[in-house]
Amino acid sequence: MNSISVLHIDLFQQDKNTSDFYFNTMQNHLATSHRHIEKAHRHDFYATILFTGGSGVHEIDFHTYEVSAGSLFFMSPGQVHSWELSDDIEGYIFFCSQDFYEMHYVNQKLRNFPFFGSVNFPRKLQLDISELNNSVALMTALQKEYQSQEIMKDGMMLSLMSQIFIQSARLFSRDSNHSAASASLSYFKHYQEFERLVEAHFTKEKSIAFYAALLNISPKHLNRITQTVVQKTATEIITERVVLEAKRMLMYLDESLVDIAFRLGYEEYSYFVRVFRKTSGMTPTQFIKMYKS
Q: For domain 183-292, which CATH number applies: 3.30.70.2740, 1.10.10.60, 3.60.20.10, 3.55.40.10?
């Protein structure tokens, strides 16, 4: 059975410089890791990628983003991505495991950053020249620390990473189009917990009442939260997560459509098709033809 490969940080750490962390320039990364990343794949770690030159396209979970100087991307574990980049591509890339970050920052979780915590949050920032220069300065400082043997090295790297994440969260919050970033802290925390629960149970549980009960709130209030944060109903969030997984499975698993529907909690294939079509605008068969043609 063909499946989506899941890449681990140790595939990239040739010298094991620092456990659970990896840093490289884009040029070196593409040259040394091509055999791992030439096809669509997942990671089991968090990834941050800053492009400083060149062009291309970057697809993350079937959303296509343009790549240019100033494109800053954030990816969470489990997301499927691929890219097509020009030969003159330049930039920086680093990977971080959840344990590496959260072992040092006990009260700060990576998923608390909106671009890591929410499936429905944009994965790309487009920086202006001043913002790009600030980000490059932090990246080069992080690269220097990664290559050093100074005392308290991990602490300095974590500090620089946090500056990158915090500055990016602030830039997202200044864009009024990203309603998640401007939602109240209480609503956003509830929304993040809702998404965490959906991630754990979406193949079996699809009712708002189930998740509202776990959150100890009413279904009406859960809908109010999701509408405020991402302008979608709770049912839409659940269904979109199911359909995303269906797309991943349709693309990368050698299983029948009926088997995939069953694995996602649909005993009636016809109902699964209706849900898929309503959410994505096409049937599973049409999706396969479009992406595999």
A: 1.10.10.60
CATH T-level assignment (fold) for domain 5-176: Jelly Rolls (2.60.120)
Residue 1: its pLDDT value, please? 36
Residues of the chain with CATH 2.60.120.280: 5-176
Closest CA relative to residue 183, chosen from 242, 118, 241, 126:
118
Mean pLDDT for all residues in the chain: 87
For every residue of 165-229, DSSP letters joined together read HHHHHHHHHT-TT-HHHHS-HHHHHHHHHHHHHHHHHTTT---HHHHHHHHTS-HHHHHHHHHHH
Q: What is the pTM of this model?
A: 0.74
pLDDT 10s digits, 239-279: 999 998 999 888 878 889 999 999 999 999 999 999 999 99
